[in-house]
Amino acid sequence: MKNKNFWFGKRVLVTGADGFVAAHLIKKLIDNDAVVIATARHKRPLKTLDLLREGKVANQPDMEYCDLLDYEEIRRVCDRHQIDTIFHLAATAIVSAAADAPMSTIENNVMGTLNVLEVARINNMPRVLIASSDKSYGDHTTDKYEKLPYKENYALRGLDVYSSSKVCSDMIAQTYAFQFKLPVMICRSSNIYGPGDMNFTRLIPRTIMRLMSDGPPVINTGNENVLREYIYVEDVVDAYMLMAEQAESYYGTDHKNIPRSGVDTYGWPAFNVGSYTKNDLIDINKCLSIKSVDSLIKILREKVRDIEPNIIPKPSNFIEIPDQYIDASKLFDLGFKPKVSFEEGIEKTTTWYKKNFSKLEPLAAKYLE
Ligand SMILES: NC(=O)c1ccc[n+]([C@@H]2O[C@H](COP(=O)([O-])OP(=O)(O)OC[C@H]3O[C@@H](n4cnc5c(N)ncnc54)[C@H](O)[C@@H]3O)[C@@H](O)[C@H]2O)c1
Known about the structure:
By secondary structure, this protein is of the alpha/beta class. The protein is built from twelve helices and twelve strands. It has one domain: Rossmann fold (3-Layer(aba) Sandwich), CATH 3.40.50. Helix 3 runs parallel beside helix 5, helix 5 runs parallel beside helix 6 and helix 7 packs across helix 12.
């Protein structure tokens, strides 16, 4: 059972504050009376958090503008604000951008995570949450033993730059859990969608924005039928907060619950963040948040504008992982239950983009040609 007062007065650092998921998380943490300190690299003219709040007056997070690659600066920020909880979300989070910039992506995602974990270790923080991804699991489609849906104890087989950067940071986070007994919770979430995502290379924001501007959606050749699982951003925020709330009890008094060796250690600090348990996934046709690219675009065409998609060639450096969906039973056992159905989530999302179209159009211009 979630403790309603858990967040009151907690001193929480959220990294990547100008990002999509972080904006929702900050909003909810502030609504739950946490003291939120947020890091961002840049001051953006259009802030996701302000767009989500629709002009309503509310508390703002205490902003620290810094680069997570600067270890000393992160340490100073945590000391200055007496941080007791970290949600580490900052990352180069776009698969295609990562493929175009392997060195900076790996440096950013791996060293940024290491810096955060090291500061948490030195300060004995009672809870640290690391945003990882189901992309870390990579290709399991023909695996004889570790079949879909992904489970937390599966091998991490990311093949592209983004995925392997997440595999590495995920592994380092596990190391900090096992070797230093730092209560780290690793969230391997499926594709997150909802209002406020200004990453216009992603399927849902890009398709809605293209349809809104009377253009055809685009599909990469051969990707029409790959399956992806989607989860609404507010459900992800609930999962993150629940995991942070449960970190101390999951690790146990004096960390007695940490397994010491063998299979029990595989993926122990990690949780899949998705909408289904293994029983639900017996019939994936009933799991409405698992969609092919083609069927998702059809839904968006019905909601926004009915324009036939263009099939375009894949960039040569593009690796499309085959079907991906996750078994989130472990998270459900912790007390999680998603609240937003796919139908409702997509309705809220398209409504938001329609409402904010004129503000978003200049930012998305490059992706609308
Ligand atoms: N959105 C998804 O579908 C999804 C799915 C699984 C996991 N994740 C993970 O969740 C996290 C948040 O994703 P998002 O969708 O909100 O991405 P996002 O791109 O909207 O946000 C990431 C933010 O991190 C910031 N950042 C990057 N490097 C930084 C650095 N060195 N110092 C300071 N700030 C830095 C960026 O400026 C950006 O604002 C990421 O770690 C991502 O890998 C996202």
